[in-house]
C-alpha cells in the first residue's frame, strides 16, 4: 500500500535488519528496541490492524504465530520465555497502521497489565 512504512520496508524501499522472510511474512528488528531481543513480525499483505483480520486472511495470522515460535526458538529465547505484543488502533497505541506483532525477550521483562 502506498505511503505505508512497513509496506516500504517489505518492498526493500526502506532498509531494515531482516531476520526472516517467506512468501507471506517479513520479520525485522525494531528500530527502537524495548528489550534485548525486539523483532517485528508483519504480514506482507497490507492488513491494517487486528480489526481487519477476516476468515480469508486468518490463515496468514496463524502462520505468523508459527513464525514467531520458530524465531523465538532460533534466537534461543523460547525456553526462558518472551512476550508477543500487538497494539491495535489509537487507544491501543498502534503507531504504524500495518498489522505487526512485537516479539520481546532475551531478558526478564517488566510485568505489565
Ligand atoms: P506500534 O507502536 O505497536 O505501532 O509499533 C511500531 C514499531 O515500529 C515501534 O516499536 C517502532 C517501529 N518502527 C517505526 N518505524 C520503524 C522503521 O523505520 N524501521 C524499523 N525497523 N522499525 C520501525
Explain the overall architecture.
This protein is α+β, with helices and mostly antiparallel strands and 113 residues long. It is 25% helix and 22% strand. The chain is built from three helices and five strands. Strand 1 and strand 2 (25-29) form a beta hairpin. The longest helix is centred in the middle third of the chain and has 18 residues, at 58-75. The radius of gyration is 14 Å and the shape is globular. The termini are far apart. 22% of the residues are buried. 2'-deoxyguanosine-5'-monophosphate binds at residues 5, 14, 16, 28-32, 40, 87, 93-96.
Lay out the secondary structure.
Elements: H1 5-10, E1 18-21, E2 25-29, E3 37-43, H2 58-75, E4 82-85, H3 89-92, E5 101-105
Antiparallel strand pairs: 1-2, 2-3, 3-5, 4-5
The structure holds 2'-deoxyguanosine-5'-monophosphate.
* Protein structure class: alpha+beta
Helix content: 10-25%
Distance between the termini: 33 Å
Please report the number of helical segments.
3
Largest sheet: 5 strands, antiparallel
| Global morphology | globular
- Average the pLDDT over all residues and give the rounded result: 97
Rg computed from alpha carbons, rounded to a whole number of angstroms: 14 Å
Order of helix and strand elements from N to C terminus? HEEEHEHE
Q: Could you list the spans in which at least 5 consecutive residues all have pLDDT below 50?
A: none
What share of the residues does DSSP label as strand, in percent? 15-25%
The number of strands is 5
Heterogens: 2'-deoxyguanosine-5'-monophosphate
Amino acid at each position: 500500500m502506498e505511503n505505508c512504512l512497513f509496506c516500504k520496508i517489505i518492498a526493500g524501499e526502506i532498509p531494515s535488519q531482516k531476520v526472516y522472510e517467506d512468501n507471506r511474512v517479513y520479520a525485522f528488528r525494531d528500530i527502537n528496541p524495548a528489550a534485548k531481543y525486539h523483532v517485528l513480525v508483519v504480514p506482507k499483505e497490507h492488513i491494517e490492524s487486528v480489526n481487519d483480520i477476516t476468515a480469508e486472511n486468518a490463515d496468514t495470522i496463524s502462520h505468523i504465530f508459527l513464525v514467531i515460535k520458530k524465531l523465538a526458538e532460533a534466537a534461543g529465547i523460547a525456553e526462558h520465555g518472551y512476550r508477543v505484543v500487538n497494539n491495535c488502533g489509537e487507544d491501543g497505541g498502534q503507531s504504524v497502521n500495518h498489522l505487526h506483532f512485537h516479539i520481546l525477550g532475551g531478558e526478564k521483562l517488566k510485568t505489565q497489565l
